[in-house]
Amino acid sequence: MAADPNDPLYQLLLDEKIEEFNKQRAAGKTVDLRGASLRGRDLRLMNVDGLDMRDAYLRGADIRGVDFRNTQLEGASICEAKISGCFFPRELTAEEVRLSQEKGTRMRYRSIRIVKKSEMPKSGTEED
Asked: What's the CA gap between 65 and 26, in Å, rounded?
């Protein structure tokens, strides 16, 4: 499923009514923003906590100060977006964010694998 252009919360974003969007979110409403086109919108102070924004198009958007740490952004593009003060998910490297902001690439999550101590290679200091 992708972003529904008729969704009232999506419409609030398109109209840049961020304060009302945040009030609706605080009241328990949510919105699917997968593939959403938010090009050039002023989204400062937007509450994105827990939202799915995979494949969203944020070219030229003002997202300064937005906390995306708990937001799904894989495949999103932030070309020429204003990103000062943003937090991004730990799965996105700084290089990935830079490439998307400068070149318009879709952001790819890196794989994070937890290695158990028992799986770590021996240091080689032990004798056979």
From this structure: 19
| Count of other CB atoms within 10 angstroms of residue 96 | 19
pTM higher than 0.85:
no
Domain count, the chain: 1
Enter the tokens of residue 99.
């490439």
86: in domain:
yes
Asked if 69 and 99 touch (Cβ cutoff 8 Å), the reply is: no
Residue 111 CB neighbours (<10 A): 6
- Cα distance between residue 83 and residue 76, in whole Å: 14
113 inside domain: no
Confidence of residue 123 (pLDDT cuts 50, 70, 90): low
CA distance 128 to 123: 12
**Structural domain boundaries enclosing 22:** 1-108
pLDDT in the model for residue 128? 46
Is 128 within the bounds of a domain? Answer: no
| Cα 100 from chain centroid (whole Å) | 12
